[in-house]
Specification:
Layout lengths: L9 H22 L6 H15 L8 H18 L6 H12 L3 H21 L5 H11 L2 H71 L6 H24 L13 H9 L4 E8 L6 H21 L4 E9 L2 E8 L13 H12 L3 E6 L5 E8 L5
Parallel strand pairs: 1-2
Antiparallel strand pairs: 2-3, 3-5, 4-5
Helix pairs in contact: 1-2, 2-3, 3-4, 3-5, 4-7, 5-6, 7-8, 9-10, 10-11
């Protein structure tokens, strides 16, 4: 977050630090006692290499730690007695990235490597190597670099946790608001549908008492009112999270398909894969996808057959509903609230939804719901 302040890019900061450390190490090394000829060239190259490696300290902190440490060993062996500033910065960066154990182990091993290097090269006795290790890798400096990196890491971790908490609070408030709106909508619709249901039942009752034939439209209104009332009651129970009444889920899909068969739709259900329990949210969403798809087919598609496929895949549940209605690729249907609600449910679970006309005619709804992370 910028907060209106001027922010320096990370690459610019890293390059500035690397160039500054290189200048400091080279200036210190060349201004004090140092070897000549080939060892001087090698030492200068290692002084610069260890510092310039800091440009990658954010992307590869452990690699930079290794390069800085080995360069410190190298220019010490060449005869440069310079405080290993590049290694201290590498220690800070590695600890900040969370690599505390590796950093401690590397820092403890570095003086040993210096000693072994001094034993290998006849021009650097062991005592002198130990002096170099003490002066160039002062334990106080290492502790300071370690502590600074740990302090920054903890601060960043607390900041991330605070940001996560704010996001969770905002998400919870949004869910509570949506729940409140849904309940108000439910109460309002329940009243209106109850009026329609009562009036239609009264009309049917009076017609039968008079011996008149009840119009089919009136019977359809009566049945639709009953079904809508049942749906709203089930929705309210789900909103209230009533543990005594389990929500409709995957195991209810066969009964749902059977219900639509009674309306004259030739609906077939196929289950593939190895059926296993799925999270409740996935089961509810799968049921709603099949329900909404079959409802659209029955009311709008002018279809005679519909096929429902439930595929249990590793880590996911796939649903596909096809029909042989009048929809073609040249005349795709206008997306309604049903498809929009279906897409919102799938997206909330991190899944994918695809709705499109079939080449052979009709419409296809395909959804894939991940099982991980759903609750």
């Amino acid at each position: 977050m910028n907060n209106g302040r001027f922010a320096i890019p990370a690459k610019v900061t890293d390059w500035s630090i690397a160039v500054g450390v290189a200048a400091l190490q080279l200036g210190t090394g060349l201004s004090g006692p140092h070897p000549s000829e080939s060892r001087e060239v090698m030492g200068v190259a290692l002084l610069a290499a260890g510092a310039l490696a800091l440009t990658a300290r954010r992307r590869a902190p452990l690699a930079v730690l290794a390069v800085a440490g080995m360069s410190a060993v190298g220019y010490q062996a060449a005869g440069f007695e310079v405080l290993a500033v590049s290694y201290l910065v590498a220690v800070y960066s590695a600890v900040r990235a969370g690599h505390r154990t590796v950093t401690v182990a590397a820092s403890a091993a570095l003086p040993v490597v210096l000693l072994l290097t001094a034993l290998v090269f006849p021009g650097g006795p062991a005592r002198e190597a130990l002096v170099h290790a003490r002066t160039t890798l002062e334990i106080a400096w290492l502790i300071a670099a370690f502590a600074a990196g740990e302090a920054v890491r903890q601060a960043e971790r607390r900041a991330d946790q605070a940001e996560y908490t704010r996001e969770e609070t905002a998400r919870r408030r949004a869910d509570e608001e949506r729940l409140r709106i849904a309940r108000e909508l439910h109460d309002s619709l329940t009243h209106q549908i109850s009026v329609i249901k009562v009036q239609s039942e009264v009309a049917v009752h009076l017609a039968r008492r008079r011996g008149e034939q009840v119009p089919q439209a009136l019977l359809t209104i009566q049945e639709a009112g009953r079904e809508a009332t049942r749906e709203l009651r089930a929705t309210l129970e789900a909103l209230r999270d009533d543990a005594t009444t389990p929500p409709l889920g995957l195991e209810h899909i066969p009964h749902l398909v059977e219900q639509f068969r009674t309306t004259g739709l030739k609906a077939a259900l196929t289950i593939e894969g190895h059926p296993h329990p799925v999270p409740a949210a996935v089961g509810r969403t799968a049921y709603r996808i099949v329900q909404e798809s079959l409802t659209n087919i029955s009311r709008h598609a002018a279809a005679t057959t519909a096929s429902v496929l439930i595929d249990h895949r590793p880590g996911a549940l796939a649903i596909r509903v096809d029909d042989d209605g009048e929809t073609t690729q040249d005349t795709p249907p206008t997306p309604g609230l049903g498809l929009l609600g279906m897409r919102e449910r799938v997206t909330a679970l991190g899944g994918h939804l695809r709705t499109e006309p079939r080449r052979a005619g009709g419409f296809s709804v395909q959804a894939e719901l991940p099982l991980s992370g759903a609750s």
